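Q: Hi! First time doing this. I have a protein sequence and I read that you can turn it into a structure. Is that right? Here it is:
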Amino acid sequence: MKSAWDDTWRWTLVVLAICLVVTLALYHTRGWIWLGVPPIGDVRAPFSDAAAQLYTAEVCNGGSGEWRGHVCFIPSASAAVHAQAYEPWLSFQRWGLNGAHYTEVAAVLIALFYLAFCLSFRPVNAAEAILLLVFLFSAAVQLAVERANFDLLTSAMLCLAAWLLSHRRSTFAIAGCIVLGIDTVLKIYTGLSCACAGVARQSDRVVITLLALACSAAAIAILGVDNIVALGQGAPEGATRFSTGAHWLWRQHGIAWALAAATSAVLVAAMAWRILARVPHPPFARHPRRTALMQIAFLTAIPLFLAKDSYDYRFVLWLPC
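A: Yes, that's right. Below is the predicted 3D structure, encoded as structure tokens:
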């Protein structure tokens, strides 16, 4: 007799296989434009963000660039923004991960992202599988895939942290806090979810929250406050058509637009909460990974929307919400 566990793994593997095959086809045909992903320039070369990240570190370690503390900026000739590199990205280049490997790095990032989300959601039937595919092949998510942005790695690590934090054993929760701390070193804006990781726990919330706060403090200490300030001031954002953050609206169209966007988001969330509150919800133990991932993603995505200018590919962080 076939069990629900067999169905879960079958549909999980089906979704993962479809994601990999379709993405390979999109790569060879440059078909992302038909999904609504706007190209960068006429060439439409994929994986541009991965290439920029790796080549920038290579140029900076070669002695070029504008250094502010331990952060290196490479001015762009065609845009107002700067490419930037800082530790540990600079160390990765010293260890041999340079711009020549950006295609392989992009393939690993994309595969890890798909694997993490398929294992996190584990669809149990065709309806859930189709819904997950609709999310994964939306223009917002595929923008990150086409660019091979390193937020794909951030998202995969958030999935891993959610699984660890949803486990009943404290050792797993400790490991989850450490993963979030490492993620914060790579992408500083994941720090709030690290600090509030205790919300994903049914037990030991105080201890886990204190540990997560310690991991956040350690990540900030590793990066350095001066470097964080330099990153915030030296890399202007909001110069692309993908900018949708409330802060960008404030700067570009005035406080009225920013308040309207934030108010609309709060009202929609309140309406959704009111509707969902009327429906009996399943116990936490039934979907622990999904619940923990939603909480972590919410704590990452909401402040990011309110505080950042350029949002674009970071919609991958909204997927669990």
